[in-house]
Amino acid sequence: MAIAKRPSTEMRERRFEYAAAPEATDHLKIADSYSLFIGGRFVEPHSRRRFATVNPATGQTLSEVAEADDADVDRAVTAAADAFRSWSRLSGAKRARHIFRLSRLMQERARELAVLETMDGGKPIKESRDVDVPLAAAHFFYYAGWADKLEWAFPNRRPRPLGVAGQVIPWNFPLLMLAWKIAPALAAGNTVVLKPAETTPLSALAFADICQQADLPPGVVNILTGAGSTGASLVGHPDVRKVAFTGSTEVGKEIQRATAGSGKHLTLELGGKAANIVFEDAPLDQAIEGIVNGIYFNQGHVCCAGSRLLVQESILEPLLAKLKSRLGTLRVGDPLDKNTDVGAINSRAQLEKIEGLVNSGIEEGAEIYQPACDLPERGYWFRPTIFTNVAQSYRIAREEIFGPVLSVLTFRTPDEAVEKANNTPYGLSAGVWTDKGSRILWLAERMRAGVVWANTFNRFDPTSPFGGYKESGFGREGGLHGLAAYVELD
Ligand code: NAI
Ligand code: MG
């Protein structure tokens, strides 16, 4: 176990409390149990098995969801293949109308979706309310706009949909990842079977309800809940023509092996260990906000999190002093409280993974800093953490922790910054903080990362492609690139 150091008195004095401002939950109906969404209807799972999804902030079971087996996967893929015949022939303008309707309903039901996302996954309500849900709806809006303009998207080519897409998503941004997967697939004329992660299935089931409410033709979207074996079965189904996966590098590799030689199209969005690079001429207070947003947003459960902070040696001391003081103002606790900055860790398993890696950092010789904050008694929690004295060889500098844990390293010259930033098997994102525009361009050119943010971090937009290099995967989601992953071009 990582033990928090005692807070300095200065730090304690600086914190002041807000009155609790909990978001209401009485407008939300969570059923005791859920079935599978196949062919436009909720159907009993063939397996007859169900498993619990809990609220990680309390440990309480929210609902029991169905566990799809091979027969259920087959039913769902067959329903999607049947629906593909008519959906792919529908005019682009009509498909667009359906997709617009989905985004409008997501906006109308935004409050319900945000509360559900927070209860099922532990993220702060201000994040699900202001980021996850609006961005998810924006993805549907954006891709709806392309549905009748595919010939303009790919000039002088004849774009054709691929068929049934099998999509497997993780638990860190459940609804947003659903949107990244489903919106471009439908716009291009594909049908989908999507499997949400086992700890966060509820927003995908609410989305299934939205599909019904929107009168989406049956079978165009199918939602199968289940664990890894359900995902493996979906990926392996012979009638799935396209596989899209977001999750761990380990499972991504398994999926690549499983689909090799099958002719299936594949995109993988995997882990990351992003460098957030701060030069001595950077606007320091702005950089502090970017560092905090980069690693403590969504408890650090972010594939593109800025988990390695590279600081130019000359400003290490003032930067660390400001960062530590800023950490003291972060509010950790009830995710439903509108003032909360850092919510619950998504699951016990993830908490154990974070604790294991943090202990390895201490054992390898890094220095740990955690601000004073009381943690709730029930549920899964981890204090925002900073490691200094970190060598590049330490596990905390190499492995994805996927928690609120920052490893601080230093550099002297821009060349050294590039070398250290690229010294990772991953390559999803990077950040750079400097006053010099020329340096931003110089650095961005040399970063082996799919996204480079300059004087900002974790900024997302549906029009902008996102994806990785090396072990962070391949293929892009968002923008025109994201559409290209769902069409065949003659
Ligand atoms: P995971 O990769 O096992 O889970 C992601 C999704 O894949 C889930 O829906 C899961 O049910 C499914 N899945 C698992 N095994 C599968 C298989 N053989 N075939 C098809 N689908 C399968 O990730 P997990 O175990 O939840 O997290 C472990 C670590 O992975 C985290 O600590 C983090 O470092 C990383 N991770 C990265 C994510 C990213 O956004 N890049 C998201 C989630 C986890
Ligand atoms: Mg849950």
Which key phrases capture this entry?
alpha/beta, 7-stranded mixed beta sheet, 490 residues, 17% strand, Aldehyde Dehydrogenase, Chain A, domain 1, binds magnesium ion, Aldehyde Dehydrogenase, Chain A, domain 2, 20 strands, 6-stranded mixed beta sheet, binds 1,4-dihydronicotinamide adenine dinucleotide, single chain
Structure, briefly:
The chain has 490 residues and is α/β, with parallel strands linked by helices. It has 17 helices and 20 strands. Helix 3 packs antiparallel against helix 5, helix 4 (110-121) crosses helix 5 and helix 11 (284-296) crosses helix 12.
pLDDT averaged over residues: 96
Form type: globular
**Count of the separate structural domains:** 2
Question: How is the biggest beta sheet arranged?
Answer: 7 strands, mixed
CATH topology of the largest domain: Aldehyde Dehydrogenase, Chain A, domain 1
Strand order of the largest sheet: 14-15-16-13-12-17-18
Radius of gyration: 22 Å
Q: Could you tell me which ligands this complex binds, including any ions or cofactors?
A: 1,4-dihydronicotinamide adenine dinucleotide, magnesium ion
CATH architecture of the largest domain: 3-Layer(aba) Sandwich
The CATH class of the largest domain is: Alpha Beta
What is the number of strand segments? Answer: 20
Give the number of helices.
17
What fraction strand?
A: 15-25%
- Name given to the CATH homologous superfamily of the largest domain: Aldehyde Dehydrogenase, Chain A, domain 1
